Amino acid sequence: MDDRVARIASIANVQAYNSHMVQKYVDGAPHVKHASLRALYSRILIQVFDNAVRYSSIPRVLDLGAGEGSVTRSFLELGASVVAVDISEYQLNELKDKCKHYGERLEIYCDDVNSALENLEGKFDVVVANSFLHHVPDYISFIKSSVSVLGEHGQFFSFQDPLKYRSLSHWERLFSDFAYLSWRVFRGDIMGGVARRLRRKKGIYLDDSVEDNSEYHVVRGGVDQDAIWGVLDGEGFDCDVISYFSTQSRVFQPVGTILGVKNTFSVVAVK
Ligand SMILES: C[S@@+](CC[C@H](N)C(=O)[O-])C[C@H]1O[C@@H](n2cnc3c(N)ncnc32)[C@H](O)[C@@H]1O
Question: Cα(210) to centroid of ligand 1, in Å?
Answer without folding.
Answer: 14
